[in-house]
Structures are given as structure tokens and as C-alpha cells.
Design brief:
Elements: E1 3-6, E2 23-27, E3 40-43, H1 84-116, E4 121-123, E5 128-130, H2 138-149, H3 153-166, E6 174-176, H4 177-195, H5 198-211, E7 225-227, E8 233-234, E9 243-244, H6 245-248, H7 252-262, H8 265-280, E10 291-292, E11 303-304, H9 311-323, H10 329-346, E12 347-349, E13 356-358, E14 360-362, E15 365-367, E16 369-371, H11 376-386, H12 395-416, E17 426-430, E18 434-436, H13 448-460, H14 464-480, H15 506-518, E19 531-533, E20 539-541
Antiparallel strand pairs: 1-2, 2-3, 4-5, 6-7, 7-8, 9-10, 11-14, 12-13, 14-15, 16-17, 17-18, 19-20
Length: 547
């Protein structure tokens, strides 16, 4: 039976409806990620040509260079000697580029401040504010640590004043626990961690107490929705009453940090309990179906994916272990078991090029597609390899690092092989033709590829990741920039300049932040020794470093 999801009715386990408001998505059988397998994306009333006649910033004169380049990186086995001279040359070039990225952030923030300050989002074409997240100033809160890390302190303190004087959760009804945790709670916690301003801690505690009602299920598995100005939680109807794997396993970094700074240990206990339940139900291959019964924690389907509705559950296995000082062994053991399952069940190579990708597994059958969301795995695998208890030189760590590099190259090719130089929502892999954009040709300003580029560059020092990221930034500047902000685009295979009237808050929280940090050799951020990023790119210190 065909279903149509419009506006914010659709949840893919990562973003709750990742589509502009004037778009409709038609799906077959079941929601399997925005533009899921067998689905179609229909742009209705999109405002076209908005990129023409606009100041293109760093995109001026940019022409995508095409795919098939840097083939020596295709299998992840290349080890480039990084001399002091190579690093110094790359750093010098990067310092100039980071200014261009900061200019882009200034451009978007100015548009938000002018047309939507204090509202959830700015519409980049119609120049209006709107509140798809309940009116919690989501873009403002989500952007605070980006402003801080880019040195935009005047804008940061303006945002702080709004949080202090106007942010309230008393009027907010039903929300996505996952989205509100990673965007709003995560944003407040990171702003506190970097600035030390008590306002952010106070607002985070208020929000955290309200969100924690979602844990009140018979099993302790949280519900996906809760009412912030009430005391009622539930799951979305389209899940059949199930909780989603990514949603139950992507709130721990935030609640554990909140527990640390408030002394409220119950936040950590409730969050950790989710993974303890899942650990007891660990499968033979370490991989988990995406639908979970909140009554007993049992699995309600047999689909396995590192894309929509599954992705960040695996990300937080590793990050919670790192956040806790590598002492909670069950997190690392779950992560290592899952990576074994990835290698044995999901890793595939395309023909004819031999691009590595991570497929979905549905009812025991491989679905040869890869969401843009899966591109976080390059950074996650690399971070897991560099922190492997067996050592970076161990066969396991080297295997994972090679896959990290190979998958990240594939994700780069998802951009480079498109006419615009921008990646679609997902690609299909077909025998003899490598990857095709298929039906989901839209780009909603997603960050996962540049996230992995940043992590791999910081860990390996290889300047190639900065080069790939710079190509992506220039393409975004050319095709997504409007005269007040940045817009999603409906078809990455077309250079006609059509844009959609939507800029998700994660573009400023994640995409712009990672693009900047990638080109910032002087950053204080240290993913190996000091900081843990939540899945919305909000970095906070590891718990042992927090006073």
C-alpha cells in the first residue's frame, strides 16, 4: 500500500521529515528513510533559479571537476607520507579557506537574525521565520557552539541573551525526543561547556527533566515522542507502536553530560540502561533491527541499516565509551561486535570501479543502496581504529581504518559524480554502473560526509580530505546559497538552479561547523583526547575533564 508523508509527519530516525514544507514524498510499503527504496520525491512549487543573480561567495566561478579522480584512495589502502612541509603547506592554505567558510556562516546567520531571530528556522527564499520544532529557537540554539568555535563571539552573546530572556519550554507540546535532545539539549550543553555560562546549564536542566519523561515505559526503552508541557509520551503511529533504534540509542551522550554537570545521576542511569538492555539482546553478528518494542525491548522487524533509523545507535556505542574514559567495557564490546557484523554482512564493492559501500539488510536480503546518512561511518570507523584497545597497528584497527577511508572516498564520489558536485539523499549500486542517484535526488544540506572528512583529516593529517571538503563547500556555495541564507535543492543532477525554501538547523550546527573545523588547523577541538561530538556536531569535553 502506498503512503504519502508530507510536512513533519515523516520520521527517518535521524531527522523528522527532512523535506521542505512544500514537498511531498511518496513511498511504497514502509517508511525506509526519506526517499526510501522504491520511493519517489516530487518537488511541488519549489522556487527555482534562486541561485542565479545571487552573490555566490566562494562558489563564484566554481565548476564541479567530476568523479573518478583520486583513484588511489578507492580501496582505503593508500598511506600518504605526511611530512612537516606537507602539513605546513596544507595548514596555510586551510587558514585562508576557513575564512571563506566563516563568511558563509556570517551570511546565513545574518539572514536568520534579520528574518527569523528566535524562531526555529528561516526560510531562505521567502525570507520568513517559521516554527516546525515548537518555537524553541532551534536554529539559534543549534548554532551557538558553531558561532563560538568560529570566533563569532558577538553573535554568540546575542544568542545567549535570547536564551536567557526568551527561551521557554512551557508552551511546547509534543516533540520528537531524539531531535529535541540532539539539537536543543545538545546545543545548550555544548554552549555551556565552551562558555561556562550558567544560563545554558539552567535551560538544559529544564529541558532534560521534561525529555526524561520519555523513559517511563515498561522496559525503560524510551518512547519517540513526549509532551514538553505535559507528562505524556508515545510513539508515532506509523511505527506501529515501536521505538526506533537510532532514536533510543542517540540520547546518551547528552543525558550523561547533563548528569555530570548537574549531579543528577538518574539522567545517566536511565540513558545507559537502554544500551544495557540492548546488550542483553545482542545478536550473533552484533547488528540490531530498527524497530524495538518499548514494552519488553524485543525486536519488531528484521531490517538492519546504518542509514535512516539505525545509524547513530552504533555511533553512540563508541562515543559513550570514549566519553566515559574508556571504562565502560560493554559499550566498546557492543561497538566491536557491530563492526564485525558490518564487515561480514554489509560491506560490498561496486562494479566496475570497486567502490566500497555499506548496504542495508532487509529480511536477510541485501539492499544495495547507501544513504548519505551512512557517510558518518568513515569518521566513526577511523575514530574506533585510533582508539582500539588492541592498538592502532592491530589487524582489526587497520581493517577498520582501511574501510573508513574507502567508504569516505565513496561518499566523496557521491558528490563528485553529480553534475552539481553535491550528493543526493541516497544512491543505489547497480552491477556494471557503480552508483546512481535514483529517485532521491534531493540534497537537504546534510553534514555526514564532511563530518568524516574532518575526523579523518584530524586523525591522519592527510590534506586530501581538506581538498575534497573544499570542493563540497564551493558546490554548496554555488547551488545552495540564496541572498539571505542557504537552501536545499531538489535535484543534484540538474544545474538549472532550482532551490527549495528550507534550511534545516543542522546546516549551521553541523555542515558549516565541520567544513570550518576541517580547514582550521588551530582549533582547540581534539576528537582523540578531549572532545566527544554528539550526532548533531555539538562537542563537549569527555566526562573526566569536566569539573
Amino acid at each position: 500500500m502506498e503512503s504519502v508523508y508530507t510536512n513533519r509527519q515523516y520520521s527517518n530516525g535521524r531527522e523528522e521529515l527532512s523535506l521542505p514544507f512544500d514537498e511531498t514524498i511518496t513511498l511504497g510499503k514502509e517508511p525506509s528513510g526519506v526517499g526510501g527504496s522504491g520511493g519517489s520525491y516530487t518537488a511541488r512549487g519549489g522556487q527555482g533559479g534562486a541561485s542565479l543573480g545571487v552573490d555566490l561567495g566562494a562558489g563564484e566561478g566554481f565548476k564541479p571537476l567530476g568523479g573518478g579522480r583520486f583513484n588511489e584512495y578507492i580501496d582505503g589502502a593508500t598511506t600518504t607520507p605526511i611530512t612537516k612541509e606537507v602539513r605546513a603547506e596544507s595548514d596555510e592554505k586551510a587558514r585562508g579557506r576557513r575564512e571563506k567558510v566563516r563568511d558563509g556562516m556570517r551570511h546565513a546567520w545574518s539572514g536568520y537574525k534579520t528574518y527569523a531571530f528566535g524562531m526555529d528556522e528561516v526560510k531562505p527564499l521567502s525570507k520568513q521565520g517559521h516554527n516546525p520544532w515548537g518555537g524553541m529557537g532551534t536554529t539559534l540554539v543549534d548554532s551557538l557552539d558553531t558561532l563560538w568555535l568560529m570566533g563569532m563571539k558577538e553573535e554568540f552573546w546575542e544568542g545567549r541573551d535570547w536564551v536567557r530572556d526568551h527561551l521557554s519550554h512551557d508552551h511546547v507540546g509534543q516533540v520528537s525526543v531524539f531531535e529535541t535532545t540532539i539539537r536543543s539539549l545538545g546545543g545548550l550543553l555544548a554552549a555551556f561547556d565552551w562558555s561556562g555560562d550558567q544560563v545554558f546549564k539552567e535551560k538544559a536542566l529544564d529541558l532534560g527533566e521534561r525529555l526524561a519523561h520519555a523513559f517511563e515505559s515498561p522496559s525503560g526503552i524510551p518512547y519517540g515522542q513526549t509532551v514538553l508541557n505535559g507528562h505524556r509520551s508515545m510513539n508515532a503511529g506509523w511505527t506501529g507502536g515501536s521505538s526506533l533504534l537510532a532514536e533510543i540509542g542517540t540520547i546518551q551522550v547528552e543525558f550523561r553530560y547533563l548528569a555530570k554537570i548537574t549531579g543528577r545521576e538518574e539522567f545517566k542511569t536511565k540513558a545507559d540502561n537502554v544500551f544495557k538492555i540492548m546488550n542483553k539482546k545482542r545478536t550473533s553478528d552484533g547488528l540490531y533491527p530498527i524497530y524495538i518494542n518499548p514494552t519488553n525491548g524485543n525486536f519488531n522487524n528484521n531490517k538492519i541499516t546504518f542509514g535512516a533509523m539505525g545509524d547513530s545507535f552504533y555511533e553512540y556505542m563508541l562515543k559513550c565509551w570514549l566519553q566515559g574514559g574508556k571504562k565502560e567495557d560493554y559499550y566498546r564490546e557492543m561497538y566491536d561486535a557491530a563492526m564485525e557484523g558490518v564487515h561480514s554482512k554489509l560491506v560490498q564493492k561496486s562494479t566496475p570501479s570497486g567502490l566500497s559501500y555499506i548496504a542495508d539488510l532487509n529480511g536477510g536480503n541485501l539492499d544495495h543502496k547507501m544513504d548519505h546518512l551512512v557517510c558518518f561511518m568513515g569518521g566513526s570507523l577511523a575514530l574506533g581504529a585510533y582508539t582500539d584497545p588492541l592498538g592502532l597497528d592491530s589487524p582489526r584497527a587497520q581493517r577498520d581504518l582501511q574501510l573508513a577511508k574507502a567508504v569516505t572516498y565513496t561518499c566523496y564520489q557521491m558528490y563528485a559524480r553529480q553534475a552539481t558536485g553535491i550528493a543526493p539523499e541516497f544512491v543505489n549500486f547497480r552491477s556494471g554502473s557503480d552508483m546512481v542517484a535514483g529517485h532521491a535526488r534531493f540534497y537537504i544540506l546534510r553534514p555526514e560526509t564532511v563530518e568524516s572528512l574532518f575526523i579523518l583529516n584530524q586523525l591522519t593529517g592527510d590534506p586530501v580530505y581538506r581538498e575534497w571538503g573544499w570542493e563540497i563547500f564551493q558546490a554548496i556555495e554555488k547551488y545552495c546559497r540564496t541572498d539571505v541564507a542557504y537552501a536545499s535543492i531538489p535535484d543534484v543532477t540538474s544545474t538549472r538552479g532550482r532551490q527549495d525554501d528550507r534550511m534545516e538547523s543542522f546546516f549551521l550546527a553541523e555542515t558549516m561547523k565541520y567544513l570550518y573545523l576541517l580547514q582550521d588547523p588551530d582549533t582547540e577541538v581534539d576528537v582523540l583526547r578531549k572532545h566527544v561530538f554528539n550526532t548533531e556536531a555539538h562537542p563537549t569535553r569527555m566526562l573526566s575533564l569536566v569539573d
